[in-house]
């Protein structure tokens, strides 16, 4: 969990609690597993999405 930001962990935990209350623990685990599988599959299809380089240099515009 240390790899995720605090806000992201909070949102995921809230969603897990909602799923457990609504569907039960076994179904919630299945839903979360499917979500993670889909997330990883999307990340594998588009690996360049998160590795953009920042532009450096250039002159600042005067206002």
Give your account of this protein's structure.
- It is a single chain.
- The protein has 63 residues and is mostly helical.
- It has two helices and no strands.
Fraction in beta strands: under 5%
Structural class per helix/strand content?
Answer: mainly alpha
Point out poorly predicted stretches: none
Rg estimate, integer Å: 19 Å
Q: Tally the beta strands.
A: 0
Largest sheet: none
Q: Quick one: overall form?
A: elongated
Helix content: 55-70%
Distance between the termini: 44 Å
Order of helices and strands: HH
Mean pLDDT: 76
Helix segment tally: 2
Topology readout:
Layout (H helix, E strand, L loop, with lengths): L5 H18 L1 H21 L18
Structure summary:
By secondary structure, the chain is mostly helical. The protein has helices at 6-23, 25-45.
Key features of this structure:
single chain; 63 residues; mainly alpha; 2 helices; 62% helix; 0% strand
């Amino acid at each position: 969990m240390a790899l995720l930001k605090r806000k992201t962990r909070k949102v995921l935990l809230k969603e897990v609690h909602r799923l457990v209350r609504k569907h039960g623990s076994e179904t919630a685990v299945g839903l979360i597993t499917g979500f993670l599988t889909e997330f990883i599959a999307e990340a594998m299809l588009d690996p360049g999405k998160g590795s953009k380089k920042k532009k450096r240099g250039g002159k600042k515009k005067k206002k």
